[in-house]
Amino acid sequence: MATKGVLVLCAIVLGCYLCEVQECQEYIKTIASLNPVPVDRTNEFVTQANGVPAKEAEFPHQVRLGQWLHEDYDDYDDPSFFIRCSGALISENYLLVSGHCFWAVGNEYVSLGRHDYTKNSSLPEIQIKHGTSDSFIEHPNLELKSAHDDIALYRLTEPVNFTSNIYPACLWTDESPLQLDKFTATAFTMGTSVNDTDDTHVAKLLVNVVPNAECNAEYANSTFYKKGLTDNQICVESPVEWKSTCRADIGGLLQTLEKGSKTVYRLYGVESIGHECEENHMKYAYTKVQKYLDWIEEVVWGA
Ligand SMILES: *[C@@H]1O[C@H](CO)[C@@H](O)[C@H](O)[C@H]1NC(C)=O
Ligand SMILES: *[C@@H]1O[C@H](CO)[C@@H](O)[C@H](O)[C@H]1NC(C)=O
Ligand SMILES: *[C@@H]1O[C@H](CO)[C@@H](O)[C@H](O)[C@H]1NC(C)=O
Ligand SMILES: *[C@@H]1O[C@H](CO)[C@@H](O)[C@H](O)[C@H]1NC(C)=O
């Protein structure tokens, strides 16, 4: 009750940004009280080509929103060409995702708490049935041709109960110039083919922040980013080959551990459309969530 009062007050008096700040503090407290206590995560690791397989529950906010077999693909029977979409759990009821994820919302369910679809998890998975098409809330300015405002929210059909392996990420709220030079990028990636099409797991890469001009140069001949990246996007460079973002996943996440926390991530970006399969890129654009806080808070918290 006290929390609600503070939330309403901050919405009225101080504007929206503080609401996410407040929610994040509540999540951190809730997560610290979970049983068993969530294991420690780290921002330090050695990146390997196509990513380091994530450990079970390492990214407790990363969920699979859906998957979809690429219809334009020549070899329709090739089961490897599934596109999957990652989402980030940001509250009991909402996922934050890339706008172009609407392609991958299949006629199934959202899967939370799983990092590897080739084997059963030892931790419980939560499956929530997809809702109607209005569960997917695109940003009103979403424009896929320009790859601008490529961000959306997804309203779950029932609230998630947080557990030690399924809990939300906080959103980046800091407006000051970025001090970090590295982020952890995560995405569903393709491993070797194992019997069926479900051969995918979450992989992580430590990527370097580079000036947007570097993405503009690398995507100069691309059908996307014709006018270049905007200030609402960030360009990062992978130190290693990273082949699978097109084939396996859209909507990867860019995050780092919350300052002083070993369990809670802060989400900086969601993958921006543009990584064509036939092109080999080292640089990737992400949409900055901080630039969309007003819209996110209005939808998620009604602020
Ligand atoms: C996962 O568990 C289910 C149900 O217990 C079982 O039918 C299935 O074979 C298991 N799959 C793998 C890959 O172990
Ligand atoms: C959350 O917990 C409640 C009460 O135990 C249960 O009824 C509900 O199904 C749970 N929600 C999910 C998504 O598992
Ligand atoms: C793949 O199929 C083979 C043959 O049916 C089976 O022995 C093996 O356990 C399967 N592997 C997985 C990961 O399901
Ligand atoms: C773009 O196309 C031009 C002309 O074909 C070529 O010279 C240039 O290297 C290409 N740039 C990139 C980044 O691929």
TrEMBL record:
A GO MF term: serine-type endopeptidase activity
Gene3D superfamilies: Trypsin-like serine proteases
UniProtKB keywords: Signal
Record bears the keyword GTP-binding: no
Residue ranges annotated for the Peptidase S1 domain, each copy included: 48-301
Matching CDD domains: Tryp_SPc
Annotated GO biological process: proteolysis
InterPro entries per the UniProt record, alphabetical: CLIP_Serine_Protease (IPR051333), Peptidase_S1_PA (IPR009003), Peptidase_S1_PA_chymotrypsin (IPR043504), Peptidase_S1A (IPR001314), Trypsin_dom (IPR001254)
SUPFAM superfamilies found in the cross-reference section: Trypsin-like serine proteases
Pfam families per UniProt: Trypsin
Region forming the signal peptide: 1-21
UniProt entry tagged with the keyword Signal: yes
Family of this protein: Belongs to the peptidase S1 family. CLIP subfamily.
Protein name (database record): AGAP003626-PA-like protein
